[in-house]
Design brief:
six-stranded mixed β-sheet, four-stranded antiparallel β-sheet, 19 strands, 9 helices
Length: 432
C-alpha cells in the first residue's frame, strides 16, 4: 500500500474488521479496567502507570513524564494549576516508528474524569464499569475512556491483521483535559508533533467543526459577620456573591446576543454558557456569612481570545461591585483558576478530514456529519498553537459529567474500525 492517497483495499478493511471483532471481548475488559481506576484530577498516576505498562508490553517505545519535567509554566498558553502539584500529573506517549514513508499521526485521549457526585444518585456504582444491554456504565466510560480504548485497540487490530503503520504514530494518554488542557500542551512541548492528530472524544460519530473557548475563575467574597438578630449592621458574603452571579448571568446574555452574528455559532441558541460549579461559604447558620467562594466557568466565542474574555470578566466584576455599597469598598478577589482555553475551528478541506470522511462513510454507510461544541477539547492546541490539523471524532454515549454515564459498545466497535482504517488511510500500511 505505497500510495498514501489510495483507498484502503476492501480485503484489508475486512481483515481489520475481523481483527477488531476477535479482540473486542478483550477491548471491553480493557475499558472496564480503565473505568475502575478512579482517575479524578490529581489522582491519575495509577492509571497512567498501568497504561505505560500496557504500551511497553506491546513493544512500543514509551515515555512517562510529569508536567514538572518540561518547564510547563514557561509556555504562554499554560493554564494555572491551582493546588494540583505538577510532579504528580503524568503523561504517557507510546511511539510506533517503523521508519516508513507514510505520514505521521498522533492519537490522543485523556484519562482524567470529573467527580462522580453523590454515589447514591447513581443507578449503578460509578467505578465498576458494569456492562448491561450493550452499554458500559461508569464515570469516564463515555468521556473519554471508551475513545482511549478505541485508539489502542485500533492499532492492536492493525498488528493482529498482519500489518504495521507505514508512518510514525504517537499514542498518547494525557491528564488535565477537564480543567486546563496542560497535559496535551505538555506532549507538544516535549516534542511530539505529527502531520495530523485524532482525538476520539465521544462525539457520536460526528466531526467537531468548531468549539468555544473557556475561562475558569474564582471569586472570593468577604462579608461582615454579626449575629443574625442584628443582620442589618453586617453583611453576608453569600448574598453579595448572589449579586455577582446575577451580574454574570446578565453579562452572558449580552455575549449571546452578540453571538448571533458569529460566523460559526450564529445559528446556535445561547452558545456561551456561564456556570457556577462550586460554592462554599459561611460558618454558622445564625451569623451573617463572613466569606463565600465561587468557582465559575464562562465560554468564549470563536474570533475572540482568552485575554479579551478575561478582561471582560474583570470589567463585569468591577461594574457589578460599583452598584453595591459594601462591595464597592470591599471588592471580591478574582483568581484565574484553570482553563484559559482558546476557541478553535477545524478548518474544512484538510487532507486529514478527507481521509476520515472517506473511512467513516465506509464503516457507517453515511456521510460524516459535523457538530458545533459549546464545550472545549484538546484539539485547540494542535490547530491554534502548532498548526497541526486535528480531528475530534469518537463513539456514542450518554451522560458526560452526569449520573449513570454510559457508552454504547457497538458504537465503540465501529469507532475502533474507523480509527484503524483512518490510520491505514493516513499513514499507509505495510505487511509486518
Amino acid at each position: 500500500m505505497a500510495d498514501e492517497t489510495a483507498a484502503v483495499p476492501n480485503d484489508v478493511m475486512e481483515r481489520l474488521r475481523a481483527a477488531i471483532d476477535r479482540n473486542f471481548q478483550d477491548q471491553v475488559a480493557f475499558l472496564q479496567k480503565l473505568v475502575q481506576f478512579r482517575s479524578l484530577r490529581g489522582e491519575e498516576e495509577p492509571v497512567q502507570d498501568w497504561l505505560a505498562k500496557q504500551f511497553e508490553k506491546r513493544g512500543y517505545k514509551t515515555d512517562l513524564f510529569s508536567l514538572a519535567d518540561i518547564g510547563l509554566m514557561r509556555h504562554p498558553k499554560a493554564a494555572p494549576m491551582d493546588d494540583i502539584p505538577l510532579e504528580g500529573s503524568r503523561q504517557v506517549v507510546a511511539t510506533l516508528d517503523n521508519s516508513g514513508k507514510g505520514r505521521s499521526l498522533i492519537l490522543q485521549g485523556h484519562v482524567d474524569v470529573v467527580p462522580e457526585g453523590p454515589v447514591d444518585l447513581w443507578a449503578d456504582p460509578p467505578f465498576e464499569g458494569i456492562v448491561r444491554d450493550g452499554w458500559m456504565i461508569g464515570r469516564g466510560a463515555q468521556d473519554m475512556k471508551a475513545g482511549v480504548s478505541a485508539m489502542i485497540f485500533a492499532l492492536d487490530a492493525i498488528r493482529s491483521a498482519g500489518f504495521v503503520p507505514d508512518g510514525r504514530v504517537h499514542l498518547e494518554t494525557v491528564t488535565e483535559e477537564e480543567s486546563t488542557g496542560n497535559g496535551a500542551l505538555a506532549t507538544l512541548m516535549r516534542g511530539y508533533t505529527a502531520d495530523a492528530c485524532l482525538i476520539p472524544e465521544p462525539t457520536g460519530h460526528t466531526l467537531t467543526r468548531a468549539q468555544v473557548g473557556a475561562i475558569w475563575f474564582r471569586l472570593r467574597v468577604r462579608g461582615t459577620p454579626v449575629h443574625v438578630a442584628y443582620s442589618e449592621s453586617g453583611t453576608s458574603a453569600i448574598l453579595s456573591a448572589m449579586h455577582l452571579v446575577r451580574a454574570f448571568q446578565d453579562y452572558t446574555k449580552a455575549i449571546n446576543a452578540r453571538a448571533v452574528s458569529n460566523a460559526w455559532f450564529g445559528a446556535v441558541k445561547d452558545p456561551i454558557k456561564f456556570n457556577v460549579g462550586i460554592i462554599k461559604g459561611g460558618d454558622w447558620a445564625s451569623s451573617t456569612a463572613a466569606w463565600c467562594e465561587l468557582d465559575c466557568r464562562l465560554g468564549i466565542l470563536p474570533g475572540e481570545t482568552p485575554e479579551q474574555a478575561m478582561d471582560g470578566i474583570a470589567r463585569c466584576l468591577a461594574e457589578a461591585q460599583k452598584s453595591d455599597s459594601f462591595l464597592s469598598s470591599n471588592p471580591a478577589e478574582l483568581i484565574w483558576s484553570g482553563f484559559q482555553a482558546d476557541p478553535a475551528v477545524c478548518e474544512p478541506g484538510t487532507a486529514a478530514e478527507a481521509a476520515l470522511a472517506a473511512v467513516h462513510e465506509r464503516v457507517f454507510g453515511r456521510p460524516l456529519d459535523e457538530r458545533l461544541s459549546t464545550a472545549v477539547n484538546d484539539t485547540r492546541y494542535y490547530t491554534v498553537d502548532y498548526g497541526i490539523p486535528a480531528l475530534c471524532y469518537g463513539p456514542y454515549g450518554i451522560g458526560p459529567h452526569a449520573f449513570d454515564e454510559r457508552v454504547d459498545l457497538e458504537s465503540l466497535r465501529k469507532t475502533t474500525l474507523s480509527i484503524a482504517l483512518f490510520v491505514a488511510q493516513w499513514c499507509g500500511l505495510r505487511t509486518a
